[in-house]
TrEMBL record:
Domain named EngB-type G: residues: 25-203
Pfam families hit by this protein: MMR_HSR1
HAMAP family: GTPase_EngB
Designated name of the protein: Probable GTP-binding protein EngB
Alphabetical GO biological process terms: division septum assembly
A cellular component term, taken from the record's GO annotations: cytosol
Keywords: Cell cycle, Cell division, GTP-binding, Magnesium, Metal-binding, Nucleotide-binding, Septation
Origin species: Tunturiibacter psychrotolerans
Function field: Necessary for normal cell division and for the maintenance of normal septation.
Protein family (similarity comment): Belongs to the TRAFAC class TrmE-Era-EngA-EngB-Septin-like GTPase superfamily. EngB GTPase family.
Domain of life: Bacteria
Amino acid sequence: MRLNPVFLLSATDVAHFPSEAKTYGAPEVAFLGRSNVGKSSLINSLLGSQEAKVSSTPGRTRAINFFALHEGAGDKMKVRPTLIFADLPGYGYAKISKSISAEWPSFIEPYLAERETLALCICLVDTNIPPQENDTQLITYFKQTQRPYLVVGTKSDRLSNNQLAKSIAALRKAHEVEEILPVSAKTDAGTKMLWAKMMEVAE
Ligand SMILES: Nc1nc2c(ncn2[C@@H]2O[C@H](COP(=O)(O)OP(=O)(O)OP(=O)(O)O)[C@@H](O)[C@H]2O)c(=O)[nH]1
Ligand SMILES: [Mg+2]
């Protein structure tokens, strides 16, 4: 899958989320997870571009960054995109609080609760660390609100096959989810499968 990204805007307020006039009501995929889990890197790997900002400083993404994804070239502003990607700020950066909502910007909750075109939430969990309580909280939120979500295990390239299988099993158990898709932004492992899942919601 190769879609061309166009950066739409960076929102720090509910009023700034891109309107239907900008997105043409195209289905949106949101990327969520702790700071440093690899959200922006995964987006770049999926797009084969450097559109999303990656930094070595955790907590860098403090806004929701929206990208419109188009097939082919042409006048991109005038046609409906295939998908919208939303790169969200990470949580779990400030060690002071264990709860997500306490440290997440106030516009995230309304985004998740009210964004009508939000078709799929990709929850990223790091396969290199033990299961985290705040990830469980987010996943529980999606179960309760019945928002479609998919859990992916990031940075799979850092582990042997055996270690990865163990990590995925532990994460599945702790977060009580049936499926966790291992991915790597470095080697592109798992990204084909992830594209297939996202295109299901795009249709
Ligand atoms: N080895 C390896 N490193 C990765 C992978 N994905 C991300 N990283 C590294 O992890 C760090 C954080 O990556 P980001 O993509 O900026 O993480 P983020 O979730 O967007 O972080 P915030 O925007 O701060 O919430 C960077 O140093 C990346 O190079 C991966 O698949 N494999
Ligand atoms: Mg980021």
